[in-house]
Each structure stands twice: as C-alpha cells, then as structure tokens.
Design goal:
Elements lengths: L1 E7 L2 E7 L10 E7 L10 E3 L5 E3 L5 E4 L9 E6 L3 E2 L9 E4 L6 E8 L4 E5 L7 H5 L15 E4 L2 E6 L2 E6 L2 E3 L10 E5 L16 E2 L19 E11 L5 E10 L5 E10 L4 E8 L13 E5 L2 E6 L6 E4 L2 H4 L6 E4 L1 E2 L2 E2 L10 E3 L7 H10 L12 E2 L8 E9 L4 E8 L10 E6 L8 E6 L5 E7 L10 E9 L15 E8 L11
Parallel strand pairs: 3-10, 29-33
Antiparallel strand pairs: 1-2, 3-6, 4-5, 4-7, 7-9, 8-10, 11-36, 12-15, 13-14, 14-16, 16-17, 18-19, 19-20, 20-21, 22-23, 23-24, 24-25, 25-28, 26-27, 30-31, 31-32, 32-33, 34-35, 35-36
Length: 504
C-alpha cells in the first residue's frame, strides 16, 4: 500500500493505492440471442435476487464474476423492450445458472418487435462485456470515444464522401454538465472502409484539448444551449459542397433567444452563422430531418418533423433565403382549402404554413376534416385507431418502390414517446394512410428516430434507423445503466409479411 498526499482547497487529503491483485479468471459469459436470427440482443436487463442489475452489451453479452455468487445456483430475472424470455413453472421470467469462470450460457429471446435491435451507437462501454470476456470487439474504440457518456437526437449527412454525424446535448464522465452546443463526428461509409451497420460506427469525434467532444456551434459563448436541425448538403455557385443546418440558441424547450442558418467551416471545424432569422419566422428554414428529392428537373431538399412538409431548391443561395421556401399545405387562414370536388386542396404554397400533426389533430377534433383525409395521422392497421406522429424521417426505398416513413408516436402506450411506426406512400409528402407498429418500449422513451438510407442493404430490403433511448418524458425514474440518453440502432426487413398492412 502507498499513501500520496494531495490538497483539496485548504484541506490535505490522502489518496490510498493498493497493489494490484493477481489477474482474475475469465468471467462467466451469458449470451442473449434473438431466437429468430441467432444474433446477440443489446439492452437486455438481467437482475439477481440481491437486485444486482446487468445489461447486455452490443454483442448481447454479460460478463459475470460476482464475488460470492460463483459456483452456486443464481437466478437471473430477464426483461427487454419488445422481447420475451423463458418462463418457469411458477411463471417467473428468467433462468437459473451456476456461474463458473470460463463457462458460457446462452439464452434465446423471442422477439415481439418487428424491427430488430442491433447495436448501441454512442456512449460508454458499447462492447464492455465483450472486452471483459477477452473477445475481440468490432469497434476501434469499444469502451470510450470522445469522452462521451450520452448523446441526444442525431442528424446525419453524406458530406465529402463520408458520413457526418451531429448530436444535441452531450454528456461527459468528468462532470454532470457536458457539451450543450452540439457535438459532431465523422465515419466512413460501409463498403468504403466503414463497418457493417449492425456492428456500429467508428466515430472520429471533433474534440477539444481535453479530448472531450467539443462545442461545434459555440456562437461566441452567448447564453443558452444551441441545437441544430435540418442538416443537409447543398452546393454553392461554384459547385462546392456546403454543409448547412438551422440553429437555435435556446433557454430550454420553450424560449428561443435567436435562430438562423449555420454553415460548417472546414478549417475551423465549427458551424458559424450564415444568416439570422426573425424570431417570428416559424417554418421558412431547414427543420426536422432533411430528405433530398428530385421533382422533374429540379433538385430540392424536403424537410419535416414527422412527414415532409417544407421544401427549398437544393442550392446554398436558396437555403439562406426564407422567400425561397414552400409549404405543403391546404390551409387558408387556419381553415382547410378544398377543391370544387370537395377534396383537400394540398399544394406547394408560400402564403400559408405547413400542415403537421398538431394542426391536423385540431381540424380532426373540430370536424373540419374527416379521419380518412389525414395526411400525417395514419390509421393503426391493427386497431383502426388514429396514430398521432411526433417526429421521424422519410426516405425513398428501392426495394418497396415507395417512400418509407418511420416515426415515433406521441401519447402512445405503453410508452408516451417510445412507440415506433412504419408507413409507406407513393409521394414524399404522403398521405400516410396506414401504419404498423415496429418497436415498443415499456414506459421508456425512444424519440426522434432517423432512418439512414446510406446503411440500406440487399437493395433496400434491409433498412436501419436509430433513435434516442431516454427516461425523459417517460415518467420512469430508474435509468438503464450505460444505455440511457444514447443512440440505439435497429434494422427492419421490409419483406416481413407483418408490414404488408402498411402498404399504400
């Protein structure tokens, strides 16, 4: 034992270091696998009778070496959102093992979700148990990367041949307060040096001198957090790529101090103001998630929160000019316009704002529109009830030859903001007639899901999407270790027959 004095303020303290014990034996390995695919399932909670909680890593592994519980029978209760586990004769969910060093047990979980959970993308210990078991993880940084503990709400774009990643508030290990002015990283595309998406992504974070993910939109240190949305790539007059987004400097969810358009400075590796917008400008700017769309001979960027409802020509000049934006709308003075035949008169217009789920819900409640006229409140294909969509993304899918929407439901059950739905349409603006639930959460949030077309496999038959897994808005006080406030990736087989009822 060695004693080292050090000072805390005016107080002298002692730090005690003990000699390292001999290397421990290899832990007992518990593998939880999807019974349909045989692949490890991340985010499975195993709890012992003395309430010790273990959570599978991104390979579906738990490394168990609890003192006093090796070589004796141990019961593990098991649970995971959208999965079923073995029941014993008394109806208890879980299994009993006798853990011994170097041995392994395999648990087969029955997936109820249509989508398959494949990997956690951000945070600490993504392949923690894999490393503890002496196995080789696929990530270059399987335990810690950029000092990141948690990250909120992803945005992505293909910029200069690589994937550019952008997140909101980012937590760090060193202190409860982290980076509240946007964090960013890049990774290589699959097939061009990048990993298969089911293994994760090797992020190269933009970091500060301390090695932690740095503020990517500092705005000269003024008051408030800074969030970026509507991330997209357009070209300037010389043909050069410009990475742009809408920025908002805020005092939380409600108050906005300023907002505008930011552009990425490659030399400084930060986003800088390119245009400041009036505070009363509500929709003429990049928003939600961006989707490139070619209409005739013109390239556009479409934006939206759930469905797509705002567009602008895909040029740097137009993105900066609020007058260049159009809204997909049928509104006239807050009431719906109709054609002579009685149909809703949707068109790209500049004289009214876009119709999104909130306005649609108000019209539906007031009887101004019929349920079958809803554009972004699809019918649950199973129950025929209307689904109020909150946030999501729309992408063209080659396999389905349709536009595919993946979005989270607002005020759903059993989670308020964690039920994820799939729908198809022949146009990027919808309407989204019917939807099928593909992911459920037990009183836990999974918000702002984003579909990554650059991860599509098998000609678009297999698609990937991620979202923010968080206790926020859920009413739950207990947080899932390692996973809470981080990004989790799912994949979806579009040939699954359970999706047929979502086809338009």
């Amino acid at each position: 034992m060695k004693l080292f004095p050090f000072a805390i303020g005016s107080t002298l303290a002692l730090c005690v270091f003990f000699p390292r014990a001999a290397a421990a034996e290899k832990p007992f390995e518990i593998d939880v696998v999807d019974s349909a695919t045989g692949r490890g399932v991340p985010l499975v909670e195993l709890e012992t009778m003395d309430n010790r909680l273990y959570v599978t890593d991104s390979a579906g592994r738990v490394a168990f070496s609890e003192a006093g519980q090796m070589g004796v029978p141990v019961w593990f209760s098991m649970r995971s959102h959208g999965y079923e586990f073995p029941l014993d004769g008394f109806g208890m969910t879980g299994m009993r093992f006798t853990p011994r060093a170097g041995e392994k047990a395999v648990v087969k979980a029955k997936r109820l979700n249509i989508a398959e959970r494949v990997v956690r993308l951000t945070g600490q210990g993504i392949y923690r148990d894999t490393v503890l078991l002496g196995e080789k993880p696929p990530l270059a940084e399987p335990l810690t990367n950029g000092g990141v503990v948690g990250q909120d709400s992803v945005q992505t774009a293909i910029y200069k041949g690589r994937i550019f990643w952008l997140w909101g508030d980012t937590m760090r290990m060193a202190y409860p307060l982290g980076n509240f002015r946007t964090a960013c990283a890049w990774s290589e595309l699959p097939g061009r040096g990048g990993l298969p998406p089911s293994q994760g992504a090797d992020f190269h974070y933009h970091v500060g001198k301390d090695g932690f993910a740095k503020q990517m939109c500092p705005l000269n240190g003024k008051e408030g957090v800074v969030w970026l949305f509507g991330l997209c790539v357009v070209r300037d007059e010389s043909g050069a790529e410009k990475l742009v987004a809408h920025y908002a400097r805020r005092g939380g969810l409600e108050k906005v101090f300023e907002h505008g358009i930011a552009v990425f400075n490659d030399e400084k590796e930060i986003f800088e103001r390119a245009a400041t917008l009036p505070l009363d400008e509500k929709w003429r700017f990049p928003r939600g998630r961006a989707t490139p769309v070619r209409d005739g001979d013109t390239d556009y960027i479409y934006f939206g929160d759930a469905g797509l409802c705002v567009r602008v020509r895909a040029t740097f000049t137009d993105v900066l000019d609020p007058a260049s934006y159009d809204a997909w709308t049928c509104a006239r003075k807050l009431v719906p316009r109709r054609k002579p035949d009685g149909a809703l008169d949707f068109a790209w217009r500049k004289d009214a704002g876009p119709i999104e789920s909130e306005q649609e819900a108000k019209w539906l409640k007031a009887g101004a529109i019929k349920p079958e006229e809803c554009r972004v409140s699809p019918e649950d294909a199973a129950t025929k009830q209307r689904v109020t969509l909150h946030e999501g993304s729309v992408r063209w899918n080659e396999f389905r030859q349709r536009w595919v929407l993946i979005a989270v439901q607002q005020s759903g059950k059993p989670s308020f903001l964690g039920e994820v739905w799939y729908a198809e349409a022949v146009a990027p603006t919808g309407p989204w007639r019917r939807a099928v639930k593909i992911v459920t959460h037990d009183k836990y949030s999974f918000y702002n899901p984003s579909q990554h077309a650059f991860f599509d496999e098998d000609g678009g038959r297999t698609i990937y999407f991620e979202g923010t897994y968080s206790h926020t808005f859920s009413g739950r006080t207990q947080r899932t270790p390692l996973y809470d406030y981080n990004q989790i990736l799912y994949r979806l087989d579009l040939a699954d027959p359970r999706l047929k009822d979502a086809q338009d």
